[in-house]
Amino acid sequence: MRIGLGVDGTIPTVKDWESVLNVATALGVGAIAFDGYVRKYGSGAPEIPSAVKKQSIALSYGFDSNYARQMKTAEELGSLFTGAGIRTYVLKGRVVAECYPAPGHRWSSDMDCFLLPASGGDFDAWEKGNSVIEGKGLRVRRGFYKNSSFSVSGLLVENHRFLTPFRGNRTLERLEALLQGMMRADSGSSKFAGTELYRPPVMVSALFMIEHSYSHFLHEGLTLRIIADWIMFSRRHKDEIDRDLFERYIDEFGFRRFYDAYLHLGEYLIGERLEESLTDAEKRMWDSVWDGLDLHETLHGIRGKMNLVGNTLRARWKYRLFSPISMIRALWIQVKGFLFIRHPELPVWGD
């Protein structure tokens, strides 16, 4: 996988390539792992059995086809919103994929977007975007306070009203206000060539990724792809990220213990850090990558909330080692938000 990410390395002797492929695929990096072997040995890949090689080629082709199909749909969506006076920002997804040697081999199953008025307009772009989609005869699901969702040509789209799950959490309220302020001050100068899709400011993408990965770790789990995402993004944009300011934000918003471990695992993944240098807590985080994910986000309503509570209870060790708040405090935030803050308003930076 390291070679597939563009890092020099060696490939150990493997007797069961089929198992390697199956594990890599389950962790979301099957195509990247095969890229590494091809980059090392060429298209012949002599040590891989023919059947496994064909399976790997088919996997990579499937990833490329999925990426091309998603990009086409996303670009059409951007053009549709532009026609309604809306600017479409891409969250994660393509913004991260372009940091990989083969962007199409970073698996993605959906598109996250954030909508703003174009050309200085003053209207609720989130709601107008929803209405534009409904005007096409498509169903928009608005049941979750953080984002609406809809499907366009087979692509699941999450239209974000908010960037963080801040309901009931004062720290995330402040982060939400900061990110919203940065987004609304953006001039739209970073645009994907030939499209009506925009990149958020780099600092927004950086903090959004860290919060998203932190939430994933606590409530579901990490994958190798999530770990690779940050190390690839931060390397690509190392000269654009104000490191001093970024580090201050990491401390201010309570990510320090998680972030340091997350960064170290990314460095370990690409061979910049030895296993012996990892702390016991970091090794436990790494071991958890191999556990099955409990994807509560696939469920909604009461059942989804109950799954979230169950995940939180099982994550006691994660809160103890990597969070500034206790598991009990986290549960209270979830309950308080769900029961008493059903429809949160946009927080204002400095409040």
Can you describe what's shown?
The protein has a domain of 182 residues. It is built from 14 helices and 5 strands. β3 and β4 form a beta hairpin.
| Run of helices and strands | HHHEHEHEEHEHHHHHHHH
Summing up helix and strand content along with how strands pair, one would put the structural category as alpha/beta
In whole angstroms, the N-to-C terminal distance is 45 Å
The portion of residues assigned to helices is 40-55%
Major sheet details: 5 strands, mixed
Architecture blueprint of SSEs:
Blueprint: H1 17-26, H2 30-41, H3 50-83, E1 86-91, H4 94-97, E2 110-117, H5 125-135, E3 147-152, E4 155-160, H6 170-185, E5 197-198, H7 202-219, H8 224-236, H9 243-252, H10 256-269, H11 280-288, H12 301-314, H13 316-322, H14 327-340
Parallel strand pairs: 1-5, 2-4
Antiparallel strand pairs: 1-2, 3-4
Helix pairs in contact: 1-2, 2-3, 7-8, 8-10, 10-11
Keywords, please?
single chain; 351 residues; alpha/beta; 14 helices; 8% strand
Give a quick summary of the entry:
With 351 residues, the chain is of the alpha/beta class. It has helices at 17-26, 30-41, 50-83, 94-97, 125-135, 170-185, 202-219, 224-236, 243-252, 256-269, 280-288, 301-314, 316-322, 327-340; strands at residues 86-91, 110-117, 147-152, 155-160, 197-198. The chain has a domain at 170-351.
